[in-house]
Amino acid sequence: MEDLVIMTPTQLEVLLERTIERVLMKSNSSKPQSQGSTWLKLEEAAAYLQVPKSTIYQLTHHGKIEFHKLGNRLRFRKEELDDYLVRKSQRVVKNSFIHQKHASKR
What we know:
Blueprint: H1 9-30, E1 39-41, H2 42-49, H3 53-61, E2 68-70, E3 73-77, H4 78-105
Antiparallel strand pairs: 1-3, 2-3
């Protein structure tokens, strides 16, 4: 006879989050980096971009960076953070070029 386990919806959500997180971590550690996505936690994403966690929250809120929710936890693909850095650097270069162009007309 099997045991019956009773839990609240919140407890079930936490159990599912942890299980999915373990599966994702195992999946990432078993694949070479070039074949699969590297998933980062909030703290890891902040460290990777060298910004505070509050900046990561702002970037996600304003739709500047892609994120994925695992229950109530945020996860980021390293490749998508790289894409954000490329877009951001292109804007900086473009804006710098525009400012230089206007300055040379004076």
